[in-house]
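## tool: complex_structure
## caller: assistant
## args:
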Amino acid sequence: MTIFSITRADFLQRVQAPKFGLILLFLAFLTFLMFPSANAKYAVISVFGYRGLYDSAWVGDTLAVINGLVLPLFAFYFIKTAINLDRFTQTDALLKASGVSNFSYIMGKWLSNLALLGTFVLLMNVVAIIKQMYLGESYTINLFTQFHSQIYVAFPALMLTASFALFFESIPGLRSGFGNLIFMYVWMPLMIVSMEYDVGVGEVMNQMEAAARELGKINGNVNVGGSTITEPLATFVWQGTEINSGNIMQGSLYMVAISIGVLFVTWLLFAHQRKGFKVPNPFKRKKKPQIETAPINIPTTLPPLAQSENALGILQLLLGELRFIMRARGWIWYGGLALILALPFTLPAESMLHVLVPIAGMWAVFAHSELGCRDVIHDTTSLMQSTVFGQSQRLFTSWIAAVTIQLLVFSGLIINFAVTGQGTSAIALLVGALFIPTLALFLGQFSSTSRTFEFIYMLIWYAGPIDKTPALDFLGTTIETAAPPTLTFAVITLILLMASLSMERITKSVGEFGSSLVRKKS
Amino acid sequence: MELRIQNLTHQYKAGAKALSDINLTIKPGLIGLLGPNGAGKSTFMSVLSTLLKPTEGQVFLDDKDIVKNPNVVRKVLGYLPQHFGVYDQLSGKEFLKYMAAIKGIPQKAATERIDALLLMLNLYDAKDQKLKGYSGGMRQRIGIAQALLNDPKILIVDEPTVGLDPEERIRFRRLLADLSGDKIVILSTHIVSDVASIASEIVIMNEGKLITQNSPEGLVSTLEGRVWEVVVSSEEAAKLEANHTVSNTTRRAGGFELRVISDSAPAEGAVVVAPNLEDCYLHFTRQKAE
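## result:
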């Protein structure tokens, strides 16, 4: 009963947050795109130039593959709040005092994570059915067929995601956005192993490939997740994944076993933490003991503030913002920055483009991620809004400061590119230095959380500078094969910046309109 | 300098009227704003500190409308909200430096001021320690420090003594009393003793309305001859509590000693005693509620 109560309370708390509606909308939109029409220029799953006819078997198996591979990467950002939320609201102390056992607590939170993921999956299935009906390739709905492989393939992956989310919340250094980045590097290899050894999702793809081969003509490769196509894909009637295949069951069992293992370790860590044992944070220097001073010779009067002109004006605010960003970074960050600044003058050109540029593009992400939502995150709105600098001025100054920091990170590379006559690459980085903080500002203001930017930026960064999708390569790392989309990103940056700076005015106007309605009513 | 509040009303979108037709003039000195939880004190403070635009009414600083021109008051304002967060990753000194930049204080003047504030608020030795390591009381003192950074002409503090130990409370009260000479200091609280000895004026609010505005002496004089002390049995005590405002109950050998506010002797053996501010607060807030 306790486990159920914890699950219910935690689930309700999280689904009632305003951003949850936004997440569902975003997921519904992505699911709608997941089943492109016959004339679309992109495919989500293409197997040697084929795709299945949109019926329950293909729709269900597409969702099984996407939800087993990609959804965990997305969902991890949003479910990794179960324990932190209790810490933030100080409910953890109440729960501890109420005698809830560690096992009940962790199980309750895990089930709540799973319920959230289940909500996502359910929504995606509903949207997928609507899209199937809309496209009309098959009007038959067979829910058993649609959910069959999802239960065996996607569900274990989601169980594992739910366990990892709690595990990452139990390790101090992994609770922040840095943990989200690390999860990406944990999940990707797991999925690569699944594909390589044809277990779980890998086996579904294996069976799809076998079915396509039997059709005869092979055209192109196997793509999962999204790719552009020049010719429409040919369709075939997909009979559905053979679940009884040993590899599907094997994959499911591995996932469930790892999931239980991770959950068990999390439970142990949590129990130790509750006993007072703290998990050492490997990314943190030793903290000085808290100093509470003895109240000796404390002055009881305050001298007046020295009167002098503020010659710097808004520049002083900018210096304050810069100091803020710089002071909040640790010594590891500065060590990395020193390397990023020095290496362009020693590395060969190829390594610089394919290794150093992507790293530099990621280096200041957590310095930017609170842009536009810092006051909400730290609950400082009331302190900041009663000061002389308006919200717009503060936002703009914090954006300039973030651009300055990003330019500093890129400066070694830009200078090197400029000196060696690679002007296009230098310009791509200049635009990149504007784009990254602007995206952070826009998404921070829009969603009031740093996670949205961290997630969306990492997707773009992975697809573009790392995976070399030319249209998303905002840092120009594919320059050897395609012209970088610098102009497109410059325009996007401008639009996002204008939208961010007007957002405060729009919000204010909406607020005033609301107040005027209340006035009229009263 | 004076703050003139005219017909101030604020209604939240959910429908609750948090402020209802408040009219008040505030002159330099320390104003104790008293009222039970939910009286509308925090909404009133938010309007005065320009965080909230009222649905009706005006607030003038001298002759300038601060609802229309919030910067008029922001330049001279120090504000300590009831609930506030800090940037945990900064040290106490860095946070104050950032706040000084936000408040437009020149750097040199800010540095001297920050040092003086850190010393006075007993935070100097912890100035380089990150805020996430601060205790609740230390955080509250950092909040007080940021409110005093710009040497404000108007200081608005909402429940400032929460989390402070008794010694710090006394020191903070003394500081507010010192500051209030030519400044307007508005201190909102429901702890009467916080303002009893230092306020030049008391404003009592309840259910979004202004109940009374008077000097502490003026308020106390309204209950002259109407506060009684009497020792009664527990049954009689229950009866008295049901029919009168009882401002204090103490267990005694013969039953309970009650402090009762009443126009006439509430029970046999009751003796008139000198009223205090706590009696006034309970009398006015209870009267309104009834």
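## assistant note: Chain B touches chain A through 70 residues (CB under 8 Å). The two ends of chain B are 37 Å apart (CA to CA). Handing back to user.
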